[in-house]
Amino acid sequence: MTDAPVHVTIATSSGVLWLALLIHFGGGLLGLASGAVAVAATKGGLAHRRAGILFVIGMITGGIFAAGIALYERNYGSLVGGAFTAYLVFTAFTTVKPLVGPNAHVTNVALMLVAFVVALTQLTFGVIAVNNPVRGVPTPMIFFIGTVALLAAVGDWRLLRAGSITGTRRLARHLWRMCFGLFIASGSFFLGQAKFLPKAMRITPLLLALGIAPLIVLLYWMWRIRLRKRLQGMILRTAVGQIQ
Fold it and tell me: How much is the pTM?
């Protein structure tokens, strides 16, 4: 007989599991707060850079612990989501602060493979979910995340082949990965955990707006940088160098 999946909360847990949930929750809140500051601040400015560092720390911490908790719960969809969030934020960071040293290339290849695995897993789950929907997860969202993961993996492959990127391509890669990581966090918090929010905040239009706001920001920056190529108001820094 197969054991049924479990669901854990801070209120019902203790010991190491309680600590893991607390760290995950704290990392997520840090990511949401610092991400909002980074979005609002002048890109490349001091406030943006400092908030961005906190965002990376919070999101990677939250994502890794989310994946570990999901593994314990046997919730493999959340496991993939946590790992993908950590991957997106880390590769966004290494776009502006590239890895160096003898193992940098191997690490970048491994990160690309992570994205391909996430894409393959999500798209496979999506095909299965067409006839066997996953409870609480819309099937189009599974395909959406899988497609984004595939695009991310292809972007990694192109960067590895080129060796470096500059200008608007560099900024676009950094911003879309950061914004999509923030979108996963905001959607998970405001839409996935709405029942834990104060009753006054449980207004569906408000939660939807907060949940998808980073996605709207992402689309704005892609329009501005990739299509309009407008860089006014940004403090530009040294371009990404050769991947070691």
Answer: 0.86
- Residue keyed to tokens 């900024």: 171
The DSSP line for 76-127 is HHHHHHHHHHHHHHHHHHHHHS---STTHHHHHHHHHHHHHHHHHHHHHHHH
65-96 confidence digits (pLDDT tens)? 999 998 888 887 788 889 999 999 999 999 98
**CA 244 – CA 215 distance, rounded (Å):** 32
Q: What residues does each domain of the chain span?
A: 15-165
Structural tokens at position 80:
């993939």
